[in-house]
Protein 1
Amino acid sequence: MKKIFLAVLLVFFFILPTKSQAAAGKILFIPHDDRPISYHQTVQVVEAAGYKMIMPPQEFLSNATNMGHPNELWQWLFENAPSADSAVIASDSMLYGGLIPSRKHDVSEEKLNARLKNFKELRRKNPALKIYVFDSLMRTPMAGTKGDIEEPEYYQDHGGNIFQYTGLLDKKEISSLTDEEENYLQTLEKNIPEELFKDWMDRRRKNFSATKTLMDFTRDDVIDYLILGRDDNALLSQTHRENREILSYAEKNNLPKTKFQSMPGIDEFNILLLNRAINEMTNEYPFVNVQYNKGVGGDTVPAFSDEKISASIDAAITIAGGYKISNPKRADFVLLVNTDKNGETLWGHNEYPSGGEFKPNLKADSGTKHFVKLVEEYVKKNYPVGVADIKFANGSDNALMKILKDKKLLFKLQSYSGWNTATNSTGFAIGTGLLAKKMNEKSKQKILATRYLDDWAYQANVRSVVGKEIFRKFRDPKFYYQLEDKLSWAENRNTELVKDFAEKNLPRFDFLHGLKIKNTWLRMFECDVIF
């Protein structure tokens, strides 16, 4: 009897596939452009966890100088979908060419409808394929910026008025305007050129209609799961106006959160949906515990968002296929969120370049000291800890990072993120942290080092230093947004400073040899960390 039992055990342990072997499914991934965070930094995380990624040729994706190639992407998708178990697809790439093209395109409604029908054809030809899609509502930036490539050119002159005008329209629909606000609304309307506002709203109308069609496809199981992102929006704005209608439409069509979510952000959706694909493929349901810094904490409404960060984080966990729990002892991942005690978003770096000196704020306030103790306590308890650093906009909290370095806690984390907006950072920290348990130690170190060099070294320090040097050297701040023929100079200077930062703040990992910083989108806004 014992021999028979032993034979059965041998079958289970050596013949039947283990969990890690069963997890080797293929995931097809089409991002919304080839920015490092959208493209290979996300892929690096998933591949480090042991999954095979099927990617389109990079030249098919939109970048700083082209509007993408939807027709080529559809052809590639139809050819490669049969070999995949699941597909994570940016609808903006398939409909307009990419995320930024979705804000500036001149695609006709007829062509959009034809491209939308391709989703039904994809389902018809691949009935077993899990199809996860992320889409975006057009953003409403608070103002335009000279040299910004992300909006129509007229937005740099009229963007501020458009934002305020649509914000007042939003408020008027929600509640009411004072007499002063009503007068200001009429003044703004007169100051915005009619033909430019019509161009902006016509594009929004087409994109909004396409989003509703994608929601219909999700209701009808053409799409298994759909996320709609609200990038760069505010409590009162055109994006917020449209989202109210979207939520009403979802309710009328009985679209539950198990099928559809609308939330602030966009760039983090790829890693969250890739997690969902993996968790559904492996039948895993990870538990996530979330703890906030003292003060306002989860009730913080961060810059570029129209809701509390706690709501965004709860939605991100659901999107990833996880469940939020209150007990950190039972959690597969514990997310610690560094917020300002007053619920503000601080702007200590990445200011518009003026030529002045940049000095990082290394003085820890009471909130930072409290947060460090929380990190230290949870790491000592061997909880799988990740940090979402959202106290500052676009970059790490320098005071926090210095203490974490001094206490040798940086590489005891499972994930870290502080690179852009609050929802970008929290979503990426969750998506990376949930996959960290599947990685070997070197892969984990490399991914953490990438974030520290990007979010801390570059975004919170080097970008500000070099931005001011650009202003002093070339006397025109436009080169901060469009490096043009200054690209080589900027990349060399960025590399020099990031290397120096790494030598002073990170361990001497072998993979840091030959470190380079590239500005592949020809601007200072983001960088690519190359080992």
Protein 2
Amino acid sequence: MRPTRERILFFALLPALLLALVVVGTFTLRSTLQSDSLRKQSVLEATVALATEKANRLDRLLVDQDNVVVAIADPARLEELEQRWLPTARRETPTIRAIFMLDEAGNVVASASRSAAAWAEDDGFRRLLAQRLRRDMDLTAVPEGQLRHLHGEYEGRGVLVSFWQKRDVDGHLYLVVAWHDIGRIVTDTLPRLYGERDDGKVEGSSKGSDRASRVNIVDEEGRLVFGPKLKTGDYTVGVRFPTTLYNWRLQVSQAAADELAASLRARRLIEVGLVSLSSLVIFAGVVTILVASARERRMSAMKSEFVANVSHELKTPLALIRMFADNLVSGRVGSEAKRREYLEVILRESERLGALIENVLDFAQVERGKFAFFFEEGDVGALTKAIVDGAALRAQERGIDLVFTKEGNTRAAAVDPRALEMAIGNLVDNAMKYGIPREIGEGIPDSQQARPGIVVRVVARGDKVRVEVRDRGPGVASSDQRRIFERFVRAVKNDGETAGIRGSGIGLALVTQIARAHRGAVWVERNCEDGLEKGACFVLELPKSS
């Protein structure tokens, strides 16, 4: 049932992936076809943002001057207005021509002017202020202390005033009016903010965006106030000044529209590249999921096989122990020799059962990182000889010649005797299970059995100590030489030489983990150095003691 569901998922996922890629490709093509309009819209958005920033630049300059006057104009110190403002007026408020303070009846109770010789013009402005401007200010809608502006054309000339209301300590309300000199703004301030030098860069600005634009200012009738006449087109936009000269409009034309278009085309290519990369990532992600799913299924199958193998390994010795023990208990054994043979079988199978359980437990500890290693300098040759001597009896019972040789100084820098005994013991056990022709122990002539079956050699090579376990069995196929060191993998073929050989598939994985813990390595070679037509050589290499 589960494989069927997985196949359905697999075949449903691939069409979904293709559909997703088609959708992404369609939207990419659609984006390409709409690139002209998108490019124009992007350039216009950039131009609007630039025009807004330029308009805000003048607004901030004028409002900053107004804030200086807000701090100076104090109803409690009317007589000090001139001496508090005029000394710094040219530097801090260059566009403000005069300041007037009016009482609640509309009478001018204090004033200060930068144009001492132009009283006639100031008097004309006083009359204009009293007769028309004050009425247009709509003071009832202006909260006390809030800065407002009035901009318009009066008596044939442009007027810009800033105004706010203040109370004195006695609670009397005063109107403060700052008269901005529009002529000075046009002839001095605007060229400084927006004028172009010979290199095309805006005076007083270091922003690169200003180099790619031209600016002018027109009034509400469309008459040119400042700057060159601009050619109207797709990349010319206009915005009003937010709060000060709100009846005027600042226009910006992109002088480098072609460069901006090229930049936007490059951005489009980047976006298409990102979409393509995203599609590849989606595809790679799906492939990764499928591969991981297949690997998980394979691992699950190997685990199931591992459980079956271990169960069989446990069941066989238990069955033998139970059968022979039952014969002994029931008294069906007639001779003492037979009784001893049964006891030897029980002992051998119980030892094999214990070794299997210990192998599984050790592997589980190593896999979880809970196996405690205790390293010390030791002689790998002596340790290996003890293991070979311990396995000699079992080899003799099976008719196997087990030979040990040692060459050179085989002391290793750091070994854990218990772990290393486990690793080398697994290699020797594997050689005795898989590395001997099936005829050995099955009554073949002694002349053939006289040849060495398994050779265990410990040799010092350079700064390494090698433990080589050589056999003359069927060997390991090239395709399996790496896989057999993975957990739960067994390279057992259904042939006459290896069929029926039992195992758990964790022995070589355990050897690999132990070799890594010793900063060494383990691998398998074919026919090693003895020139045999068949056979394998497992090599465990460890750092040598200095």
Protein 3
Amino acid sequence: MKIIFTSGTLVNNINQLKHFRPHLLGITWLVLFGITCSSTSLKAQETSRYTLEQVIRLAQDQSPDAQIARHRFKSSYWTFRNFKAEYLPGLTLNGTLPNINRSIEAITLPDGTSNYTSRSLTNYEVSLSISQEVGFTGGRVFLSTGLQQLNNYYTDTTTSQFLANMINIGIEQPLFRYNRYKWDKKTAPMQYEEAKRALVEANENVASVAVSRFFSLLIAQLEKEISLKNRSNYDTLYRIAQGRFQLGKIAENELLQLELNLLQADASVEDAELNYESSISEFRSYLRLKDDVPVELIPPDVIEHFVIPADRAIEAAKSNSSEWIALQRRLIVAESSVNEAKMTGRFDANLYAILGLTQTSTELRDAYNNPLDEERVTLGITVPILDWGKARGAIKLAQSNQELEVASVEQERVDYVQNIFVNIMRFNMQKNQLRIAAKSDTVAQKRYDLTQKRYMIGKVNDILDLSMAQIDNDNAKVGYYRALMTYWQSYYQVRKLTLFDFLKNEPINVPFEDLTR
């Protein structure tokens, strides 16, 4: 026998099958319990519930801002790696395979006369060299070895000759030139450290944005629930008022006020629904969530409140923040610009020297026998005679820019410390603000419940009292969650400015090694 249970025929089927009643009742309750459990389980699977901590972790992992920050850090990392690679030895293989020359060229004869003659030759060359930049002096040292072969076809008999440069040791050293490596060695590590700190700050800034998205949606959900509840309450009150008006217990003005409140409640529901859809769209977009998954937010608890000493926060910021190290780097860059201006356009000299062993022969094996010494030394100088004050003007300009940069950095340091102080004071007073908001919510709720009950039994005749109680109650509830949002935003702003977790009493870090693989 096949039994179909539907919402409209369930009772009839049971009554018709009374002889199966003991068994069917048990089966029915089992089926209904199973359906209820399945519906609850399906709903739990379809609805994603998030706490504030989960939202922050999601944002720091997959939000657009977090991904952009990681890519910026990777760029800074490889820039620093390239800088360090400049100070490592470089091995280079050079080759010319071949160089063919068939042309008519002018040559000088032994008697001093010149003549045009046909030339036909090929030249092969290969060399291997290793070089090393010397950052302290700004020069370069190198070690090389090479082999050349020259084939002449200008006579009936082809002649070949080998030139072996067995080993060459050389140096190229500017004597009075601006040393870029010296200054880069100071600023490049600072830039990389600045990038690391900026990544941590970006991570904390993402957390702050996630807090805003979380509470914006949470408040939108609350306002939507409040608007629906208010519409239901005003609808009930309006129906009661209609009955009282017909009995002559209330004036028409009060009935019209309730009707106006009901219309305003309908409009508030539409505004709240629109605000909710906008908030959840921004929430899903920032966290890269699927659009078809319902979202439920769990209001956060306030962590154990603690007071941060301002002087301790300022010291932590100076030790950890990217802005403080950036201010120090700017002073070094300004000093470097002055040094560059002083060393450019003035007396300059360049030393180039090579010491090696070389030999030539028509046979390859003989080219490596009995090597001869090879020495080459070149000292070039540059002496500006007249530049119409160009070099002096460049120095004065660089010095003026340095003084301006020093003044700007000093002012920015003062503003930076003041900004930290203000944010610390704002965070420290959040405990009292939250206490006031929570107490206001409790008082407003009690007042509204009392006023509504008194109005329902006719002890409060003025509808304006009920309206004001409802408005104050709604504002107090929303105000409490806004106070919570301000607390958490202030908390993560302090973390961002100081890069220090005062709750755990340790600096904030991220796994940089995982980002550089």
